[in-house]
Every structure is written in C-alpha cells, then in structure tokens.
Fold:
Amino acid sequence: MTYIQFLLDERRREDSDRDLLTLLHSVATACKAVSNSLKNGALADVLGSLETENIQGETQKKLDVIANDIFLRRCEFSGVLAAMVSEEMDEIYDIPSQFPKGRYVLLFDPLDGSSNIDINVSVGSIFSVLRLPGIPDEITYETVLRPGVEQVAAGYALYGPSTMLVLSTGNGVHGFTLDGSIGEFRLTHRNIVMPENAAEFAINASRANWWEPPVQKYVADCVAGEHGPRGRYFNMRWIASMVAEVHRILLRGGVFLYPIDEENCASGGKLRLLYEANPMAFLVEQAGGAGSTGRARILEVAPVSPHQRVPVILGSTNEVDLIDRLHVEYDLRTVGIIA
Ligand code: FDP
Structure:
C-alpha cells in the first residue's frame, strides 16, 4: 500500500478532513525532495556550512537552508495552510498572498541532526500539524503557540540507509519506506508499538558533570548493570541525531534523554518544543510510550515562544516513569519534604 493509498483509506474510515490529507501529501513530497538533495552528498556540493546563523545562534549548514526552502515551496501552495514555523526561520512564515489559505499550521525542523551531514550519518526532518478553528484573518504568536496535545498529526522522515516516513494522525504510528523504483513511500511498518521495558538508553554522556542528580542517578544505576539496583545490563547509544534515536526506540524500545542541565538551564534545555519535542512525544505516546520533561508531560507544556526549548525524556513507559519518580523524589528532598 502506498502512502497516499493509506491516507485515502484512513480518511474513508475516520471521516477525516481532506485538507489534512492534502497537507500530509505535500509534506511527504517535501521529504522526498530533501532525501534527493542528500543523496549525492559531496558530489552535489551541498555539504558544509554557510556564514549565517539561525535564531538559536547555530551556524546553518547549506542543507539546512536547502531543506527549509524545499518545505516552504512544497507546502505553501497547498491551499490548506494558515502559517508555517520552522527552526530555520526567526519569525512565523505567513502564506504569500498569491496562494489560498487554510486552517492548518505546519511546524517543522527541516533537517534535524545536521551536525551529522558532513560525515554521512543519518539525519531527518520532523513535523507537527495543528488545526485552527477557522482560517485566521491575522497570524500572531497566539495562533501557533498551542500545547502538543492539540496536534492533529506529527511525523518525521529518516534519511538513513533507506528513507522512511513515520506518521501518526492520532490513530497509531505507521512507517513507510521510500521505494526508489516508483518514487513513492510504501507502508512497511503498520501500527508500531514500542515495548514497555527497555534495555537501552541514549544520552550525551559528555555532559554528565552538568546533569541534575536524578539523571545522574538514573544513568549510574543503568551503568551499574547486574550488580547495581536495576539488577540487569543496559546498553548505551548516542547518534546525536534525534530522529535516528527516536526511530530506534520506537522500533525496539529504550529511552532517549536530552535533560535540562547546569549548562543549558538558562535556555530551558536543548531541544525545541514546537517542532522537535512535541511531534516526537506525540509519536512516542501513540506507540504506547511516554514523553516527559522530567517534571511534566511534554504534550501539556504551554508554549510561550516559537523557538522555546524544553528538557526531553522519551521512551518506554516504565523507564520514563522511573525517571519522573527520581525527579519527584529529588525535588521533595530539595525542599525538605522528605529526608
Ligand atoms: P543538531 O543540533 O545536530 O540538529 O536537534 C538538535 C540535535 O541535533 C538532535 O538531533 C540531537 O539529538 C542533538 O541535537 C545532538 O546534541 P549533542 O550535540 O549534544 O550531541
């Protein structure tokens, strides 16, 4: 079954909105175009950095800008969008006046994990979709600053050995693999359900000295293996590409952490709420896992700015619950409620 057949089938069964289908088709087309740009790597002279920085103060890669343009051009004329928000653009993108508007908002990170581009390691695109009550006359921050529970769809494309699109419209998580021979995504992973327990964790361990005590304890207990409090062995992985990391934990369980720490606490964490944490938490929850900041459910965080950052803990429910409990205990101890 191709991606478009799947969407049409879902639409018939769920009686969902035709505009959402149009948007999800445009997003898939953008992902195919990004995949194509990545394919030739150094041969196409698309690797390396530009002189520019994005709003987060990160040096932009050539491919960050190329992928951003691809998303804008493929989606702005769909006729179903009110606005777009991208990691690579300071401000909300208003749909140009020559195109019809709709009531959807697309929020995206066109190329996540871009530090991996120059070394030919997996990267991805992440997207989140909001549905507004109607077509707004004017787009303000309030229009797009909606909590993750209001997402009507979310997904990512993973540009790895094969290109995959993983999508949820709130009815489970489904994975599609790009079939190069017909240029179409085909359904290969129906209804992905992640295991409740995990034997793998992913965290940038070079930041250990900055972590808060609950994260230090969680990792120390995992590393202690059979002889530690967990009584079993844990494996560790760090690709430094959130899409690849989340894809792994969706398929075989595990936990992914980018927590708040002493070094990133002034900015609220590392990962962005609207187009990284929210869509990934939506997918992980849809697959039976959990998404937390350590102190709150990610999907319930009320956003205050488009590029806001949050601590991110995603994965198998039992591991995320345990990490949450460690935070609660630590906070209660800090204020003297428990010894
Ligand atoms: P990148 O900055 O390369 O785009 O989105 C941010 C992100 O990558 C994630 O994909 C990745 O998990 C993380 O940052 C990597 O962080 P470290 O540089 O601390 O390893």
Residues 112-115, 204, 240-242, 245, 271, 276 surround 2,6-di-O-phosphono-beta-D-fructofuranose (CB under 6 Å). The helical segments are 3-14, 18-39, 62-76, 141-144, 213-223, 242-252, 273-286, 317-334.
